[in-house]
Specification:
six-stranded mixed beta sheet, 2% helix, globular, mainly beta
């Protein structure tokens, strides 16, 4: 069965018995600091939009408008998953969303600048500007990974987190170091320098792939057991924004090309022309996910593109609406849906949201 993309309309939600989401009124804003820390609330975290199941064009809802129930706060800087929830990083807090009801079910304070979140062991590991912190399922900070002791470059880019079983991988852009961390206690098991500033990480077998943007556009594979470089620094044309393992290969996306590498011998297998959105609407720096029929990319205009790894071309384009910013959006795949954060121009009325895109058909 083929997949196509749609955002669930409110009519379907009502039919399923899922509580409707309250929309913020003009001139008001649901302050995240006022959200409950336990129990369901009516502060919605989802924008709803019906999208065509065949060509990706927006289709009108019964009343001809786009119904919405938007969580309102400061800019949503990232999304992650853990403990059966979707976590949105918003300002200085973590907003916990229940995907079974599409409602926020709690808010917890955390440090500012968080962009990544993933569960490993008993903690939700959240990126911060120069390290990672482990939170409980209730959003309580428990473990803080020590920052590297090497030279600090102060990149301004938040740490990158990838998890695998009981291990947390932290790509530290401020120090140009990758840390292998125990998910049970946050202790650093291995630390090794990387050539450039890490922008994204991907795991495949016994190798950790590190994508960098500064001072060089490059990708390099390292041993997950020793940290030893398995390849040289492989130069990339065009600003890189994402990499992901899929179908026994490592796919690296830049603003110019799509690269395909072997995950067994690390050699480049192919290079395809990138299908850029029209005009200056380029892709974001972190929003990429594999699944649901291909590899998904998010543009700065909040347009979703699906790259077909068999046909080597984009086979579906659609939109989530709103603003996604320059390299400031993220995307995760969980509960059968793609979840993306969204920026808004102003908190009055509500403009900041998490969008859930679900396959149908």
């Amino acid at each position: 069965m083929g997949y196509s993309l749609a955002l669930i309309p409110l009519a379907v939600v009502a039919a399923l018995g899922v509580p409707a989401l309250a929309s913020a009124q003009p001139g008001t804003c649901n302050n995240p600091a006022g959200l409950q820390t336990a129990g369901a609330t009516s502060d919605g975290a989802i924008d709803w939009l019906a999208i065509s199941a065949t060509n990706g064009n927006a289709t009108p809802t019964p009343n001809g408008q786009q119904p919405s129930g938007t969580y309102c706060g400061v800019d949503t800087s990232g999304v992650g998953t853990g403990f059966g929830y979707v976590w949105a990083m918003s300002g200085n807090g973590l907003v916990r969303i229940d995907p079974s009801t599409n409602e926020t079910v709690g808010y917890a304070a955390t440090v500012s600048g968080a962009q990544w979140a993933a569960q490993a062991g008993n903690y939700l590991w959240v990126s911060t500007p120069d390290r990672a912190t482990g939170f409980t399922s209730a959003g309580v900070a428990k473990v803080r990974v020590p920052a590297p002791t090497s030279k600090k470059y102060t990149s301004g880019v938040s740490s990158i987190i990838k998890v695998s079983g009981s291990t947390v991988w932290v790509g530290n852009s401020d120090y140009r170091v990758v840390q292998k961390v125990s998910a049970s206690n946050g202790k650093v098991l291995l630390s090794f320098p990387v050539t450039n500033q890490p922008r994204n990480l991907a795991l495949a077998g016994s190798a950790l792939w590190v994508l960098s943007t500064y001072p060089n556009h490059a990708v390099r594979a390292y041993s997950t057991s020793s940290g030893k470089a398995l390849t040289g620094s492989m130069a990339l044309a065009g600003g890189p924004f994402g990499l992901v393992a899929s179908g026994g290969a490592m796919w690296v996306f830049t603003q110019t090309f799509i690269y395909k590498f072997s995950t067994s011998n690390y050699k480049q297998l192919a290079r395809y022309a990138q299908a850029l959105p029209p005009g200056s609407n380029i892709f974001n720096g972190r929003a990429i996910a594999a699944g649901l029929g291909g590899i998904w990319m998010l543009s700065q205009g909040c347009e979703l593109y699906r790259f077909n790894t068999s046909r080597h071309s984009v086979d579906l384009k659609t939109t989530t609406g709103g603003q996604c910013g320059s390299g400031s959006s993220a995307m995760v795949l969980t509960s059968g849906s793609l979840w993306t954060n969204r920026l808004g121009g102003s908190p009055f009325p509500a403009g900041h949201a998490v969008v859930r895109s679900t396959p149908v058909g």
